[in-house]
Q: What sequence folds into this?
């Protein structure tokens, strides 16, 4: 009897994992771009080289390699595969200017290089290239900084969080659209490209509910064996908002022109907090 119970539990857990590893409807029906290195029908090949990846739902949605990649760049792991993007290489997909949610399964070789970028002179997804944090206070889009970033299911402060050396699941939801058209590159600058093992990317241009985000994360975590995955959707404890009455430094008061700026910042912070309360 004990043996039978064990087998039933084992089968139940296996079926649960398989169910989560099936792409949910929100991915199949609403993702604006879906790239999966393990989908053999999504590979574009020529002369034993990989020239790009196609969205498994539509071969016309293509991310082209900046230069052909050797077939050995496709790293197989059981029934899955990841694409090793070498130094100074990247993938380019149709310019998308209204991204509101993004999910990556990646393993970085250089912790400071870009997850997404754009060939135009914009850099919404700018990393901290000196110390390797996900986002940069000066250059990352304000929409991303005001949004919610998750690492392996846990909400993190992208300004103080670096990526692990192991495969990781990064999720992002933003309150205003951001733009990208490259994977693993900043503005077509070769020295800011590559050194990334890519598994899967899913972009959305329509807002997701919390349940939608969890469905995508569960699917990716189960499929790619993200063993550190843990669901967390509670807002972290935040420090009190600064007001014009707070001194800028000990013994110093804000000048009148900065007081007005502080009030505008306070109103913006409150608006963003209300809009993003669901996360």
A:
């Amino acid at each position: 009897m004990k043996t039978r119970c064990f087998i039933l539990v084992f089968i139940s857990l296996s079926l649960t994992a398989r169910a989560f590893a099936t792409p949910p409807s929100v991915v199949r029906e609403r993702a604006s771009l879906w790239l999966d290195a393990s989908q053999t029908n999504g590979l574009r090949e020529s002369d034993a080289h990989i020239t790009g990846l196609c969205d498994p739902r539509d071969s016309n949605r293509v991310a082209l390699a900046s230069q052909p990649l050797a077939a050995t760049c496709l790293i197989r792991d059981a029934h899955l595969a990841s694409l090793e993007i070498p130094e100074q290489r990247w993938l380019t997909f149709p310019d998308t200017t209204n991204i509101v949610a993004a999910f990556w399964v990646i393993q970085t070789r250089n912790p400071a290089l870009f997850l997404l970028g754009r060939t135009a002179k914009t850099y919404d997804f700018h990393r901290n290239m000196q110390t390797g944090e996900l986002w940069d206070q000066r250059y990352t889009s304000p929409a991303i900084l005001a949004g919610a970033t998750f690492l392996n299911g846990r909400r993190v402060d992208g300004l103080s969080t670096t990526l692990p050396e192991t495969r990781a699941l990064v999720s992002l939801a933003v309150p205003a659209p951001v733009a990208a058209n490259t994977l693993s590159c900043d503005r077509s600058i070769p020295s800011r490209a590559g050194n990334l093992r890519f598994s899967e990317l899913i972009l959305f241009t329509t807002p997701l509910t919390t349940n939608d985000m969890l469905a995508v994360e569960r699917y990716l975590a189960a499929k790619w064996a993200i063993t550190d995955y843990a669901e967390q959707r509670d807002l972290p404890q935040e420090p009190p908002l600064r007001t014009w009455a707070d001194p800028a430094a000990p013994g110093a008061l804000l000048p009148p022109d900065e007081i007005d700026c502080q009030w505008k910042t306070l109103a913006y912070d409150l608006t963003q907090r209300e809009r993003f309360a669901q996360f």
About this structure: Residues 82 and 199 are 5 Å apart (CA to CA). The longest strand covers residues 91-108. The chain is about 25% helix and 30% strand. The longest helix spans residues 2-21.
